[in-house]
Amino acid sequence: MYFPRYRARRTRKTETLRRMVRENHLRVDDLIYPMFSAFGENIKKEIHSMPGIYQHSIENLVEEAREVHALGIPAVVLFGIPECKDSVGTDAYSDTGIIQRTIRALKQEVPELTVITDVCMCEYTDHGHCGVIKDGDVDNDSTLKLLAAEALSHAQAGADIVAPSDMMDGRIAALRETLDDNGFSHIPIMSYAVKYASAYYGPFRDAADSTPQFGDRRSYQMDSANRLEAIREAALDVEECADFLMVKPALAYMDIIRDIKERFDLPLVVYNVSGEYSMVKAAAAQGWIDHDKVVMETLIGFKRAGADLIITYHAKEAARLLQDS
Ligand code: PBG
Ligand code: ZN
User: Which residues are catalytic?
Assistant: First the structure.
């Protein structure tokens, strides 16, 4: 099969031919939309580094969730901005916490929308770390108890899936055991299995008000230079009975997405994180790139790399573009 008898351009000649030989597809079912629920009323505050993304009080969040559902997007992932923060993140596992109240409102008003909850401490602790602090660092084993309590309380409020993002060792087993012991053996765990310490989370920390007040997250999130460690992390979570694996961030970690997809048979989620979104918005605002085309090229890139599901702030935009195409 050599030129000039074989010509690769033959199957690219028309849109119909290109459609026929297309190998990967983005579907609205692949999208998960992140939402920020803030304590209070009448809040609709745009995050300055993330145009189009808001902190919403519950009634406004429900409104946007209706729109998300109407677009055919199957699921949202919730982050909370509580009224009060303290050293042990009490709001995270309180029955009247911001997320627990948001889940109940969503399940009441938009019951068919799948509600995934971020399970972590950083939005609820006054120091902004993902667990409890002992001797200047996050203490793994005492944090597990709080994370398990948080996941259980989300499930009790009606969450459909819990998604731990803290990167403590043993958390999937701890959550699974607590959920099972309390009648929630049917609730899946979406593990942020492979989560790197990343500067791409910068805008999110404005959005969720979760910037660490001292130090950084490198004693628990992964070093971006490492590849084999990602496989070990994912293997541990599979052993501990995770139902979904996640790689995060996405764009700078396409090789890791492919590695995890090839080695594990669980559904693979990738998180197209805040900094990746902000960069596209900033360049588009300058008129330097074609926004819609860059968004769709990025999302199909994740699918090609091996993603089954994509958590993305572009979900609503992408759903609309898919309808138009
Ligand atoms: C909380 C959490 C973070 C993100 C999702 N869950 C921030 C962090 O770990 O600092 C980042 C998401 C994004 O940047 O869009 N642990
Ligand atoms: Zn966290």
Answer: 195, 248
